[in-house]
Amino acid sequence: MVQHLGSIAARRCGGMTGIAVLALALTAVTPALTQNDRMAAIATPTQPGAITLDTGPLPGATAKEAWHSQYGSVFARNVSVATLTPFLPDPAKATGAAVVVAPGGGFTTLSMQNEGWDVAKALAARGVAAFVLKYRLNPTPADMAGYERQMRERFSGANPPPRPSTEAMMAGIAPQIADARAAFKLIRARAGEWHVQPDRIGMVGFSAGAMLTMATALAGQDAKPAFIADIYGPLSAVTVPADAPPLFATLAADDPFFANGGFGLIEAWKTAKRPVEFHLYEQGGHGFGMYQKATTSTGWFDAFARWMTMHGWIAARP
Predict the structure, then answer these.
(1) Is pTM beyond 0.85 here?
(2) What is the CB neighbour count within 10 angstroms for residue 156?
(3) Which domain, by its residues, includes 15?
(4) 249 vs 270: CA distance, rounded Å
(5) Count helices and strands in the chain by DSSP H and E runs
């Protein structure tokens, strides 16, 4: 899961290079697939209500979008055209708040069910309009056997992928940032129809999606999330702008990617005197998302909902 960080924010906030350095280290830490993790190709699922974003097709993409099952969940890859799928609450219960949901997957796949649809459904049940962002991905082999072979080779350690220059890596998720910006633009344009208040739209991201969330928030420009959530993403320090949004972050102490990277992001938010809440779970690993596990990491969503309630984005339950 080579995770490349993008750049627009770097020009405005020089600290983005801290995350960039951490992203380089990921090339050597992802475990190889085990027999229990095997992927199986599936038909493209129906995606009712999915709206094509105006960012266009990914330049140079040739393979068709493909889907597979893994870990008892559903994943997409070779996404070349971005979409946004609304999950809207009952208008009578709508709080006016909204969240763009960015699944993870190392920018080569997307955990659409565990870190996308299931999160959006849980938010909608609490009166929050949720929008799952299926952002464009780095191309992978068209066939499942070729994709699995590529993953094995990439993560075997025998032939580690070359480390890109900082400049190349910082430009690596420009398409994904464009997709996120387009998502915010669309939601604000249709805010009245979807019972959303344009200044109450946040973003939650998982792993690579957390990187995209952070880059989107720090890029400024036209997205400007009202709040952000970093769910098991990197926590290296960044330069925090004076108007940085409130931040909610979670990580498991046994996360194989980010547990030993320090908590510079949290400290940076505190130093900037911006609202931040951080939950470090003893166990949970990486990618726990909405999976129901025996670890306390399963409680992250309830904690996130309480945090949103504290800030007034979700109405307190009677």
Answers:
(1) yes
(2) 10
(3) 8-310
(4) 13
(5) 9, 12
Residues 307 and 132: their CA atoms lie apart, in Å, by: 21
171 pLDDT more than 50 = yes
Amino acid at 182: A
What's the CA gap between 213 and 211, in Å, rounded? 5
Q: Phi, psi at residue 64, to the nearest 5°?
A: -75, 155
pLDDT score for 220: 72
Whole-number Å distance between alpha carbons of 268 and 181: 24
Tokens of 10: 């770097």
Terminal-to-terminal C-alpha distance of the chain: 43
Nearest of 234, 175, 183 to residue 206 by alpha carbon:
234
Could you give the CA distance from residue 110 to residue 103 in angstroms, rounded to a whole number?
6
* Beta pairing partners, 280: 251
Q: What is the CATH number of the domain that holds 210?
A: 3.40.50.1820
Q: 193, 110 in Cβ contact below 8 A?
A: no
For 16, the token pair is: 């983005």
Let me know if residue 318 belongs to a domain. no
Residue 254 CB-density burial (10 A; 0-12 exposed, 13-18 middle, 19+ buried): middle
Taking a C-beta distance cutoff of 8 angstroms, is the pair 135, 237 a contact? no
How many domains does one find in the chain? 1
Q: Quick one: pLDDT band at residue 160, thresholds 50, 70, 90?
A: low
CA distances (Å), origin 148, targets 63, 78, 143, 144, 308: 15, 14, 9, 6, 39
Structural domain includes residue 291 = yes
5 close to 20: Cβ distance less than 8 angstroms: yes
Residue 316 belongs to a domain: no
Bridge partners (DSSP) of residue 230 are 205, 249
Residue 315 lies in a domain: no
Encoded tokens for 129: 């309009």
Q: Distance between alpha carbon 207 and the CA centroid of its chain, in Å?
A: 6
Q: Express each pLDDT in 210-262 by its tens digit.
A: 999 999 998 877 899 999 999 999 999 988 999 999 999 999 999 999 999 99
What is the Cα–Cα distance from 106 to 21, expressed in whole angstroms?
16
